[in-house]
């Protein structure tokens, strides 16, 4: 059968990364085609190309046998391609009917909008999806997440979508809502809509998909019929990467526990997490985005204080209620997002580096300039920050050098525990290797490091022990010897027992 | 050694091409050109009237710059200065000791801006809203209380702004000394650094242990101090005080900050820049008269300067963003 949509040899590069490399993908009428891959594998870029947000650098998009160019999301919609993103794009103050017909409402003869016809149309579309409990006059902001998603689906159908892309549609849904979503997706398939379904949850993929395509590092790995493959094969396809670009951590003596977390919970996010990090040890924390990894780090660092559980630093029971307390206790946190959490971009390198120790550098009211300059020059040398000098504005540095500044800022506090969230995201290979080398060196000096990373090779290469989180819980602890890509990935993604 | 020399030339270049350098050059150019067209522009009496009559704007712009650098704004400052000037004059006329009639408005001004600071820092009300509310309250109560009457018969020795220690007018002393002190404080103190940090990225600052709430509270209090001093200079420069809010005063003060290179998005700028900009704006206003252009053009010129400065700032930010 000729597919409705076919992508051939599509490539897309962004400054510093090749996001897609000669990828092929197709969707047939009346099928659910699952798209699988780790974070950063290129799924998002691929769907943004299909939905007209990005244009490919090379390769072709063929719709109904005709090559097309999609210049904007609006053009893609007119071509019958609708996308439902993770963050739903609805207007909370407007009603269900108004949202469904936003931009293409039925008109009256004189050009005004025919709201009665819109309400009727909205009811018909919802009824055709077997949704009868939604008031089309209700404001969308008052609806549950599941209902909002149904509104998005109805909106897509009102635009006569033949292809519906759903990006992790179940990420925020309750179990009951998931069941209803599945029913709706199956109904769409019967009506001949081609559904592109992105999810990390294997159970969903096997419950819904007719075919599965796997991407890895921006490249096409393969397409399988769902009936003829299994979890094991798909996971192997997703993770088969090499570790050779890394500086693996060398063995250093491992000392006493420095950070001990017991039964830590944060309402709705973390559920009884216990872990220990020892001096000289790098503990890798793996898990999908949304598994609670970053939240765990932020809870330990006091940004979102725990609702229950205990934390010990160097054996002593502590209460951490703010980032300032955590810093005082010798915990440092290199956040996930440099731009929004890590750096003050309009400030100088020197000023960023001294930010977390300003109190100590200040004599009476004034910052000790000489000491600050020494700190900055030391950090620039130690971390090989490539910049004209300490007076350089941080916003002008490359990603890797910015990350070194963030790291330098936190190491200036002389921490005992260093928590790093995605320490090498979005930086080039050389800077990555330097940061890995630094981590080994720091561990050698007795620092306890907890490293969160979405990149399995990084987790495996750098960690003495690997912890895996899923749905707010620690689900696996693997010593270095047992931590293979397959073992970690399967713990990250394995069907939760309850589901 | 090469590094040190490199550092020095870079520093020199930064001063020359920075906002302060541009403003200084503009001031010098303005004086040269207008002075050539009409030499009376450079007469001592005119120079004095330029500085004397506008120094209080530069003083208020120091505090305003700090507020804007911290990522906030205060549109009530004009009303605040009007109210505090009236308070100062009323106290003097009522027979309060003269030092108290100078001091009490300054303290009152800090109390009022502290209320705003509390609303902005702890109750998270956007500063534009909090200060708009404060502006209405101040403007309204001033009219109700005084009925717009003029305050005259001010006691001898009250006219602080007319004093001339070492034959330099008092407002100029205040402008220069306060600008220098504030510049040093912003540049070298931990508190000043914290203001830039919160305005530049409040989240990153919080992670580094800097409390946005405390910094914003402090900034508004310091702003109140400068606004209070500005009010006393304003009250004492003439022999009567018109107890209304000077029209558009807040806009002139905010203009001085923005043209002085303080980014309206927060995080960058200096108080030296805002003082230079206040001087430039005053000199432009005066020069229009001397070259026979209607002074009503002043506002339009100010508008062009604001837009030019903001566009330059945006271009700078774009260039930086490209390096992400």
Q: Regarding CATH, which class of the largest domain in chain A?
A: Alpha Beta
Total strands of chain A: the figure is 22
Structural class of chain B: mainly alpha
Separation of the first and last Cα atoms of chain A: 34 Å
Indicate the percent of residues in helices of chain B: over 70%
* Overall mean pLDDT of chain B: 87
Please identify, by name, the CATH architecture of chain B. Answer: Orthogonal Bundle
Oligomeric nature of the chains: heterodimer
The CATH H-level homologous superfamily of the largest domain in chain A: P-loop containing nucleotide triphosphate hydrolases
CATH topology of the largest domain in chain A: Rossmann fold
Q: Class by helix and strand content of chain A?
A: alpha/beta
In DSSP terms (H or I, runs of 4 or more residues), the helix count of chain A works out at 18
Strand content bin of chain B: under 5%
- Report the uncertain regions of chain A: none
> What gross morphology of chain A would you assign?
elongated
Largest sheet of chain A: 6 strands, mixed
The number of domains of chain B is: 1
How far the N terminus sits from the C terminus of chain B, by CA atoms, comes to 31 Å
Instruction: Spell the H/E element sequence of chain B.
Output: HHHHHHEHHHHEHHH
Describe the structure in brief.
The complex is a heterodimer of chains A (499) and B (324). Chain A is an alpha/beta fold.
Describe what this molecule looks like in 3D:
The complex is a heterodimer of chains A (499) and B (324). Chain A has 499 residues and is of the alpha/beta class. Helix content of chain A is 33%, strand content 25%. Chain A is elongated. In chain A, helix 4 packs across helix 5 (145-158). In chain A, a hairpin with a 2-residue loop joins strand 4 (58-63) and strand 5 (66-68). The mean pLDDT of chain A is 87. A 6-stranded mixed beta sheet of chain A has the order 6-7-8-3-9-10, sandwiched between helices. A 6-stranded mixed beta sheet of chain A has the order 16-19-20-13-21-22, with helices on both faces. Chain A has a 4-stranded antiparallel beta sheet with strand order 2-1-4-5, with helices on one face. Chain A folds into 2 domains: 5-239, Rossmann fold (3-Layer(aba) Sandwich); 257-493, P-loop containing nucleotide triphosphate hydrolases (Rossmann fold). Chain B is mostly helical. Chain B has a single domain (41-316), classed as ABC transporter involved in vitamin B12 uptake, BtuC. In chain B, strands 1-2 form a two-stranded antiparallel ribbon. Chain B is globular, with a radius of gyration of 20 Å. Chain A binds chain B through residues 301, 303, 323-324, 327, 333, 335, 339-347, 351, 354-356, 358-359, 361-362, 365-367, 369, 388-389, 391, 393, 395-399, 409, and chain B through 3, 6-7, 10-11, 185, 188-191, 193-194, 196-197, 200-201, 203-211, 263, 267-268, 320-321, 323-324.
